[in-house]
Write a structure and sequence with these properties.
homodimer, mainly alpha, 10 helices, DNA-binding
Amino acid sequence: MKSCPVASLVKRTYHHGDLRNALVSEALKLLEEQGAAEFTLRDLASRVGVSHAAPYSHFEDKTALLAAVAVEGFHKLGAYLEQAVQENSDPTEQYVRMGEAYVRFGTENPALYNLMFTGKELPEQRDKFPELNEAGSAAFGMLTGMLGRMQQSGFLREGNLDGFGFAVWALVHGLVSLIITGRVECAGDCVDGEIGTTEEAVRASLLGMLHGLKNPLTA
Amino acid sequence: MKSCPVASLVKRTYHHGDLRNALVSEALKLLEEQGAAEFTLRDLASRVGVSHAAPYSHFEDKTALLAAVAVEGFHKLGAYLEQAVQENSDPTEQYVRMGEAYVRFGTENPALYNLMFTGKELPEQRDKFPELNEAGSAAFGMLTGMLGRMQQSGFLREGNLDGFGFAVWALVHGLVSLIITGRVECAGDCVDGEIGTTEEAVRASLLGMLHGLKNPLTA
DNA sequence: ACCTGAACACCGTTCAAGT
DNA sequence: ACCTGAACACCGTTCAAGT
């Protein structure tokens, strides 16, 4: 009985079944602190206070650990989108807010976002990690759900919702990707102009997709 | 005179000043064959027939080598876009073709594309490699140039060309990124629908940005 | 100037051994 | 069942030494 006397009263659930969660939550911090390139399994293990081989008791390999982190990321993304839906009743307003929320998630968690999408081996892990597909599908479902309400309200033209969803997803995903890799200032510098702040550029892009870039007087 | 008797007649320009180019061109092949995750400097060196330390005579480190490869990638992307412009005179047609050409470049060179954009340390290298900025700016310039012609022809609404360019860039970049990470089938599976082939989804997205997703009868 | 070979630090992964 | 410590293969990078 002398082992871990206050274990259940204090935190130290480590070594008692919580190592897996401790690794994932610490990985989330470490990822944003150091960046994905410097993220190392050995560093993670030492920061959580275990040997560098300990993670292998809970994950098959490094990519499996990262897949679990990505799942967490999709839940987090879902929370961002959910909030945008809740806070706005007007469908068109929901469209802009959801887009902005999506971009905000990406810019506030760049390393996590890159892991979730530009994950090199993640596509392979997706079959092994059904949660990874489910979490991603849930986020996409919130997007098409919002578009469906816009369509029913008569604000959206007729057409396949999945097609619309894919286009919007590609747009916001592209916005995040360009922003977090620092291509925004580049786009401004490239020619001569100023595209204003990043937020303005995002909003303008979202409205561009909604209203179209073409001259409305044109057929 | 007994050193390299037929050097100038046969290929073997290696060891005679061509190592740098040999490394870059071999890296382009190796990148698509093995994928970025498995791309190793030692493997590259051995495939080109030199010791694993030889590349350091021409590049400061691995990322500097990759930056040179990325520059090559931007030139290649420029060639794709240039062709789309040349082959079409109608501005609106150029818009769709350029977008499709951009996506085709990405899907045909996924590892190279990822290196060019989701490059982790590339942003830092961009200051050290002015070519990297120039090559990227040239591609963006072709995009805004095309949009400018559309605007002058009256097909595009009034507005900041850089802003339009950024929105279109984000869209095609997002399309490429989602496609090469295998998210397209996912989007189709997620809900219930079929968004058709990838090519159709790309075209629909491009036209969506041009004409807008909103109901044209709506204010 | 350009390349080689050995060496160093570091990482992912495995495994016998501990508790 | 979960964790440790040592070990292995591999990689990026450095450097003295060769040509």
